[in-house]
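[audit] Reproducing an earlier prediction to check determinism. Same input, same settings, fresh worker. If the tokens differ from the archived copy the diff job will pick it up downstream; this log only records the rerun itself.
[audit] input (147 residues):
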Amino acid sequence: MDLRIMPDAKALVAAYLRAQPEVQALVADRVYGEIPNPAVYPLATLTVVPGPGEAVRERLDEVHLQVDAWSALREEGGSPEEAQTVAAVLRAAILAEERITGEQPLDVPIGIVQGTKDIMGPQELPDPVTARPRYIFEVAIFVHPLI
């Protein structure tokens, strides 16, 4: 019996977002799993968060992602409005099923995005330590293996 390994939904979505012209116009290719050091803002981070995970055994996986849209501090030229704009564009890109479904541009194809679902709309949540502007939202991504 061959094992069916579910694809890395976070990697699929990150690759997809980096390839979208509307996202590139705002954050270039700065879509990460965590904030790099040093960081250039604005940027986005993706985190897998707990969700109900309505998976179909070995066929379809539901992965919940929290997307954080970060801006530079105001004294560095950033603003909460910039973080809000980045979040709005990222969310629209992810929920654009006619774009996101299918294989994503990775060096090694790892899976297929079957669909998306909006879980929580954008919320303003500045970083509690630095007060850096941030908007977060949550989406569900439905993925399945290539075979």
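[audit] rerun output stored. Observation attached for the diff report: The chain has four helices and six strands.
[audit] end
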